[in-house]
């Protein structure tokens, strides 16, 4: 079925979205076709929260391994100096627009209904879908004890959510023994979703490397969402997010770790995007 199918309305997709959906690169299965905005060579999915949830739900139902990235300015700028990371982002089943700059650029390219999909919000909404569908979830990442605490919090918040396992990886590549342990846990738990809470670009590379080896329908890299949901990072008000200033809210909470990232990335991103919009670079 394609998105022009008359039954698409039953999936919560508006007819007015069809032109947006057709603009992007085609996937191997038309059920998952959706538009993608070009942000400095990174193909960011032209979706909103509703369409993101629908696509993820259908991907899980199809049962083929894949992964979802959640990409903002930091991810796009990391991809400028790492072509391998850019391929990982562009090969994602869905590359969610995590940040208003992604949304603004997508709308300038004609994707009028593209909207920001914040990683922690997507995780929460997908947990509700998981309760309704009976999907089992596995939590991978975070510091020692974070995944276990997160599992308890999510199960309290989403009654009936099946958290079937957690794994706290070391701050280095997995050893052969650690890989074997992870594979064994995942095979026994049989999750539909593995939530990956590592930093960018570590989590994106992990998902690309292990998606098919874990043989799980969907891996989702949500970065700091683990810390948001356990309360280690404070969320900001909606108007700050809509103004594109959440980076400033994050910076104020953790200036020692984040000031170099924002000082380097934000001006460079604005300059490169300006050049792209003016046609001075591809």
Per-chain topology:
Blueprint: H1 18-23, E1 36-39, E2 42-45, H2 49-62, E3 67-71, H3 73-80, H4 83-90, E4 94-97, H5 100-108, H6 119-133, E5 136-141, H7 146-157, E6 162-167, H8 176-189, E7 193-197, H9 202-214, E8 218-221, H10 225-230, H11 238-242, H12 246-253, H13 255-277
Parallel strand pairs: 3-4, 3-8, 5-6, 5-7, 7-8
Antiparallel strand pairs: 1-2
Question: What do you see in this structure?
Answer:
The chain is α/β, with parallel strands linked by helices. The chain has a domain of 195 residues: Rossmann fold, CATH 3.40.50. It contains 13 helices and 8 strands. Strands 4-3-8-7-5-6 form a 6-stranded parallel beta sheet, with helices on both faces. The protein has a two-stranded antiparallel sheet with strand order 1-2. A hairpin with a 2-residue loop joins strand 1 and strand 2.
Key words describing this protein structure:
13% strand; 13 helices; 282 residues; two-stranded antiparallel sheet; 8 strands; alpha/beta; WecG_TagA_CpsF; disordered N terminus; glycosyltransferase; hexosyltransferase activity; Rossmann fold
What percentage of residues falls in helices of 4 or more residues?
40-55%
- Poorly predicted segments: 1-27
Mean pLDDT across all residues, rounded? 85
CATH topology of the domain at 36-230: Rossmann fold
Structural class: alpha/beta
Q: Between the first and last Cα atoms, what is the distance in angstroms? A: 33 Å
Anisotropy-based shape: globular
Largest sheet: 6 strands, parallel
Question: What share of the residues does DSSP label as strand, in percent?
Answer: 5-15%
Order of helices and strands: HEEHEHHEHHEHEHEHEHHHH
Biggest sheet strand line-up: 4-3-8-7-5-6
Number of helices: 13
Radius of gyration of CA atoms, rounded to a whole number = 18 Å
Number of strands: 8
- CATH classification class of the domain at 36-230: Alpha Beta
In the CATH classification, which architecture of the domain at 36-230 applies?
3-Layer(aba) Sandwich
InterPro entries: WecG_TagA_CpsF
Keywords: Glycosyltransferase, Transferase
GO molecular function, one term: hexosyltransferase activity
Protein name: Glycosyl transferase, WecB/TagA/CpsF family
């Amino acid at each position: 079925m394609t998105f022009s199918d008359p039954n698409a309305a039953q999936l919560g997709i508006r007819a007015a979205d069809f032109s947006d959906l057709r603009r992007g690169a085609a996937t191997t299965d038309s059920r998952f076709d959706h538009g993608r905005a070009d942000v400095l060579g990174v193909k960011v999915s032209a979706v909103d929260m509703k369409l993101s949830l629908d696509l993820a739900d259908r991907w899980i139902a199809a049962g083929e391994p894949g992964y979802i990235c959640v990409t903002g300015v930091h991810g796009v700028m990391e991809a400028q100096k790492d072509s391998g990371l850019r391929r990982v982002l562009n090969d994602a089943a869905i590359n969610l627009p995590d940040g208003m700059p992604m949304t603004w650029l997508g709308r300038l390219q004609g994707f009028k209904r593209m909207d920001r999909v914040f990683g922690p919000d997507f995780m929460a909404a997908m947990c509700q879908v998981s309760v309704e569908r009976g999907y089992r979830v596995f939590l991978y990442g975070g510091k020692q004890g974070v995944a276990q605490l997160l599992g308890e919090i999510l199960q309290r918040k989403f009654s009936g959510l099946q958290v079937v396992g957690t794994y706290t990886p070391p701050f280095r590549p997995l050893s052969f023994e650690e890989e074997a342990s992870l594979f064994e846990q995942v095979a026994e738990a049989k999750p539909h979703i593995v939530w990956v809470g590592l930093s960018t670009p570590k989590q994106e590379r992990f998902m690309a490397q292990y998606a098919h080896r874990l043989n799980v329908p969907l891996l989702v890299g949500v970065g700091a969402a683990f810390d948001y949901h356990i309360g280690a990072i404070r969320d900001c008000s909606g108007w700050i997010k809509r103004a594109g200033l959440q980076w400033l809210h994050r910076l104020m909470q953790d200036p020692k770790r984040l000031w170099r990232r924002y000082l380097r990335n934000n001006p460079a991103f604005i300059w490169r995007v300006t050049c792209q919009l003016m046609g001075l670079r591809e």
